[in-house]
Please model this.
Amino acid sequence: MTKSTKIITSAFCVLKLALHLVADSHSGFQGDELLHIETGKHLAFGYMEFPPLIGLLAFFQDLFHSHSIFIYHIFPHIASLIILIFVAKITIELGGKNKAVFLVLLGIIIAPSFGDSQQNFQPVVFSQLFWTLGFYYLVRFVKFLDKKSLWLLTFSCILGFLSKYDAVFFIFGLASLLFFTRTRNALIRNKFWLHVLVGLVFILPNLIWQFLHDYPAIQMFNRLYETQLDKISRVTNIMGLLIAMNPIVTLLLFLPGVYFMTSSKNKLLIFPVATSIVLSFLFLLYENGKSYYFFPIVLTILPFGAIFLEQIILKRYRWSIYPITILIFFGGILIPFGMPIYSLNRYLTKIYPFEKKEIDGGKFAVRNDAYYNKQKWRTTLREMKSVYDSLPMDERKYCLVWAKHYGQAGAINLFRDQYDLPEAFSYHGSFYTWAPNGQMPKTIIALSYMVGNFFQPYFGTITKVRTIYNPYSATDEQLYQYIYICKNPKQSFEVMKELFKTRIFE
Model:
């Protein structure tokens, strides 16, 4: 990178971090990230829904002994900045210069898809990070055919797999290296089978963990297809992807990027990496992944679009840099659709009217729950505290909380010392593996969303004592939370684990 390129990249990193910090000041913890935070207390070679790296990162964040959202978003924010840096480096390696770097980074900043997916402590942002790193070293290897780039590509794939299983789509795309004589010979010369072997050694502990736990990740994906993915058409998915990127980014960077990949004259470099992207895309499309599964692929296509603008459009019409930049800046009005950079009240006034939908029984169907989660969990924990304090002292001594949803269990365990609450357990997702053993206590406080008589079969008596209304929920199920006092359990914790063995992802 030249000095001017570093200045451009640094400026966008500062802007990106500022947006994330503003969003942190307005948002609360999202349900999934509360599960990910809990993994830091249970280090393992695998978890029910995802690989082990997120647990290690959560462990390091736990060392701060803080409940602050700023602390638990340290690693996501660092990852998002590294993504920007390496997208800039990819653009340079592909032949772009300062204008291309400026345009591609600006496009990422204004895309709601990346603001949303890179904001929270979830495997998604780390998947994007290692996919981007892997693609950068793929480009370097295709250019120089060197051993160093191949090893760095290998370790990027390993870290990607240990972050999120969608790394298999990127790895599948690397088969493109075998299609071209130049790269195929380089793989053989560099003994690529050693790289495959090293990769297997690093991921083997996770594969063994999955085997010992009856492949829960596969169970989760099967459940996901049953309840969601099989009901979504591929056309709907792609349309959702193009909108989530920001229509301006789609028109000015993504679609030109697709065109430039197929028409570039630099075939030795572009064709192998473009084939890799196409293979990953087609495999993911065949599996009908959600639209956000494609976000890492988009990050590898946008640099091509920026280079197209720089080398084709701006070269012929130098003045066009100004209207293009103004148009992309104008696309920034969509940033609040992805990141909670507004307060809840301002969001309801300025943004919500454009994505308003009716929920029977609800007041505001807020699509991005980050806008209201801070208020939601504060209200929930206060009500839980009130119920817990109402119990006789002898019952409080051994009482536990059974949370139906892992997000509810994660919220209680994260904040329970602030509210003097007992520990929560759950049989939902990875919480299943952390459930207690032995006899169940005489009294349990249960927390759930709208799930009917879910707790009824497991206790002698159940009393609903609180109803918590969430006027901002975008789903019928989460409009209400219910708190129950459950007494006289009918079975032990061991029996409970057997009963829920096939219901982990309900």
